[in-house]
Amino acid sequence: MAVATRPTEKTRFFKSSPRALLINGKSEQAESGKTFDTLNPATATVLASVAEGDAHDIDRAVRAARRAFENGPWSRMTPSERGQIMHRIGDLIMEHADELAELDCLDNGKALSVARAADVPLAADLFWYMAGWATKLNGGTITPSVPYLPGAEFHAYTLREPVGVVGQIIPWNFPLLMAAWKLGPALATGCTVVLKPAEQTPLSALRLGELMLEAGLPDGVVNVVTGFGETAGAALASHPGVDKIAFTGSTEVGRLIATAATGNLKKVSLELGGKSPNIIFSDADIDAAVAGAAQGIFFNQGEVCCAGSRLFVQQDRFDEVVEGVAKAAKQIKVGPGMDPDSDMGPLVSREQFDRVTGYLAKGQQAGNRALAGGHALDRPGYFVEPTVLVDVEPNDVVLREEIFGPVIVALPFSDVDDLARQANDTVYGLAAGVWTQDISKAHKLAKRIKAGTVWVNTYNVFSAELPFGGFKQSGWGREMGEEVLSSYLETKSVIVQL
Ligand code: ADP
């Protein structure tokens, strides 16, 4: 285990010194001189020390982003030049794939194989995809009808302009990928950015900042301020010099962000929590559905906003399916992410560990039965067993609240109407899975589920081309796809009387 969990030379170098903020293209210490430690959740020991930015540093970064937006070479570049830099960022991510995967594995806990296969290539692809949009953000020509100016002729058109300086606050579950989801559309539209990574996982965003400069991104276009949510994050959300705030994280903090944004009425986009239903009909390919249900919840330790955390199984196949998912859960090898034998790593932090084990205790008190797991692992680090809970009542907390860990709650349903009612009985609406061989049933249900993504006979499929986001309290707006661009653009109507 010692050998398998040892990082490579490159990664050791990167985490060998206190990491500074990135402001205006330079490494800067926090004005306060403070630093904080980021831990390796597989061992609960210090991984690296990082500058602790606060409101002063956020202000410096916002001013740098403003200068870069108003006067810098970025704003004078052609869309093609911007797109080329973005393309190079994607290339550099792949050239440094092993290092970036290791950083996220060490900082977040996730299995190295997962980071290498999913997080890193998806991040690169997001930049490649968004690079293409830089040259395609066109307005239109419009013929206005103006009844009170009879006989007047007009030439009118729309311009689509970057919204300006954007604050971006990201979570710890996919540190590099969430940075890419946020930075890609901001750069494609010509905005400038202050990015605040999660305090639990600041390393890959700082490394990405270096790679962006290497790719030719001008100084001040992307600034990275590491620090805590209540200080650096709150200062960014309320800063009067920020034109838009984009946030991914808990619904609770999303509410704080939306409130903080009202001061200057900055634009807000939010990607928040979920309690997504994964639905298995009797006529499904049951082997595939069982594997999909397990993957839907246990991928990334269940620390996924769209995790399929509520499993609905048609009554007559219920026992067979839940036993199958429990068997799959027991086969998952839980261990340090750097160990090549590990399928699943530890939870990200002590706080997250306490939260998930707290839910397991509440479930036990409520009489929920664990068919698999149900406990923490007795070893250092924040490891929790993949857990399958049954005997759950409609108001049990494990069914209603987002656990954000490897815990699935299974319930039976009788028919489609019963299922649709149960599936939509949540304040969230991020995603859903439907497993059936009846295509018409799948499409009909896809319309009835109130969620931003519906997967049919698959789960956790993400692509830069596909919009992602939530109905109800799962958020405002969409990330990725063409759709995200409008939230980084202002539309201007220009009317010329001829
Ligand atoms: P979790 O509760 O799972 O840690 P959060 O929603 O708290 O997730 O964190 C997501 C991001 O939001 C992190 O970057 C965190 O620092 C930031 N954050 C937390 N609290 C605030 C706040 N009050 N204002 C702005 N950002 C915050």
Describe this structure as you would to a colleague.
This protein is of the alpha/beta class and 498 residues long. It folds into 2 domains: 9-272 and 475-495, Aldehyde Dehydrogenase, Chain A, domain 1 (3-Layer(aba) Sandwich), CATH 3.40.605.10; 277-463, Aldehyde Dehydrogenase, Chain A, domain 2, CATH 3.40.309. 38% of the residues lie in helices and 19% in strands. It has 16 helices and 20 strands. It has helices at 9-14, 55-70, 73-76, 79-95, 97-108, 112-133, 175-188, 203-214, 229-238, 251-260, 286-298, 318-331, 350-365, 397-400, 416-423, 439-448, and strands at residues 21-23, 26-28, 35-40, 45-51, 141-142, 154-162, 165-169, 192-196, 222-224, 244-248, 267-271, 277-280, 310-314, 369-372, 387-390, 407-413, 431-435, 453-456, 475-476, 489-497. The strands form 5 sheets. It has a 7-stranded mixed β-sheet with strand order 14-15-16-13-12-17-18, sandwiched between helices. A 6-stranded mixed β-sheet has the order 9-8-7-10-11-19, with helices on both faces. A 3-stranded antiparallel β-sheet has the order 5-6-20, with no helix packed on it. Helix 11 (286-298) crosses helix 12 (318-331). It is globular and about 70 Å long. Bound molecules: adenosine-5'-diphosphate.
